[in-house]
UniProtKB/TrEMBL annotation:
Residues engaged in binding Mg(2+) 2: D117, D120, E280
Name of this chain's protein: Fructose-1,6-bisphosphatase class 1
GO terms under biological process: fructose 1,6-bisphosphate metabolic process; fructose 6-phosphate metabolic process; fructose metabolic process; gluconeogenesis; sucrose biosynthetic process
Organism this protein belongs to: Cellulophaga fucicola
Subunit structure: Homotetramer.
């Protein structure tokens, strides 16, 4: 390499000052996520060897139980985050309730709340298709030094101080924002270092890709059906092309680079859609807006919603601004 490429470690230090709160704390947190990402990446890469190394439920040669990758990813992230003196509470898609950290220790100063989808796109693990991890970070709203409460977790997405994802794809990337744009880092697996490969990522204003599970078409609301037909019509820059991986992280990542819209609408089978507001939609919405894109529940901004429960689901439309606005327009028109 003739050009000097910045590592994630260097980038974190250089950009500390742009963060509005204590910079050292956030650096520690991103560093913990970077470490967990490498550990999970190592495990995800071995997924194809499961018949050789032992499947979930089996006992391995050391007498340890083999775990499903989503359970394992969950544990690795939680362990890594717990071990830094910075996080006071974690909620995960894989856990029924939130986890309180250091709640017995009145001296603790930990201020941050982390919400994670440890393994997104888990149905793709067994077939060697990209999966991801999504994270979302808030400052607690209850007093420091007391045990966290549900209030700390049920904050609107607008309160996020950082969010990002890791995509375990043809290469592994960590993409995140602290509210000052979106940057992407690619892992060099030979030396275990992330390099800044995608500085200042931006959604093209419009695109030609729509991503939706069309198997659910007949169950979609009329406005969504109308928008899908609009995507398929021959006129101007249309028809658009359809691409759907079934891992939100991977679909979002591709659409951010190429221009496109991702949709998981509500349907007659799932009244609030499928995706989780706290673990999936809010972090992706923060990234989308920081990358000049948009994220909506079909009517308005995702990040303005006031969550009412930890595992709440919400319809999700996210991507290139013009495309999301068009989808909203069709949804509004169908309701007239
Ligand atoms: P998870 O694996 O964390 O449960 O998330 C899967 C999500 C999302 O990543 C993906 O886009 C969507 O579910 C796919 O759902 P369908 O199979 O219903 O299309
Ligand atoms: Mn998910
Ligand atoms: Mn998951």
């Amino acid at each position: 390499m003739d050009k000097k490429h910045k590592t994630l470690g260097e980038f974190i230090i250089e950009n500390q000052s742009s963060f509005q709160y204590s910079s050292g704390e956030l650096s520690k947190l991103i560093n913990a996520i970077r470490l967990a990402a490498k550990v999970v990446n190592h495990e995800v890469n071995k997924a194809g060897l499961i018949d050789i190394l032992g499947a979930a439920g089996d006992t391995n040669i050391q007498g340890e139980d083999q775990q499903k990758l989503d359970v394992l990813a969950n544990e690795k992230f939680i362990q890594t985050l717990k071990n830094r003196e910075i996080v006071c509470g974690i909620a995960s898609e894989e856990e029924d309730d939130f986890i309180s950290i250091n709640s017995q220790d009145e001296q603790h100063q930990n201020k941050y709340i982390v919400l994670i989808d440890p393994l997104d796109g888990s149905s793709n693990i067994d077939v060697n298709v990209s999966v991801g991890t999504i994270f979302s970070i808030y400052r607690r709203v209850t007093p420091v030094g007391t045990p966290v409460t549900i209030e700390d977790f049920l904050q609107p997405g607008d309160n996020q101080v950082a969010a990002g994802y890791i995509v375990y794809g043809t290469s592994t990337m960590l993409v995140y924002t602290t509210g000052d744009g979106v940057n992407g880092f690619t892992l060099n697996p030979a030396i275990g270092t992330f390099y800044l490969s995608h500085p200042n990522m931006q959604f093209p204003e419009t695109g030609k890709i729509y991503s939706v599970n069309e198997g659910n078409y007949i169950h979609f609301p009329q406005g969504v059906k109308d928008y899908i037909k609009y995507c398929q019509q021959e006129e101007g820059d249309r028809p658009y092309t359809s691409r759907y991986i079934g891992s939100l992280v991977s679909d979002f990542h591709r659409n951010m680079i190429k221009g496109g819209i991702y949709m998981y609408p509500k349907s007659s089978k799932a009244s609030e859609g499928k995706l989780r507001l706290l673990y999936e939609c809010n972090p992706m919405a923060f990234l989308a807006e920081q990358a000049n894109g948009k994220a909506s529940d079909g009517k308005g901004r995702i990040m303005e919603l006031k969550p009412t429960e930890l595992h709440q689901r919400v319809p999700f439309f996210c991507g290139s601004t013009k495309m999301v606005e068009k989808a909203e327009e069709f949804i509004a028109n169908a309701l007239k």
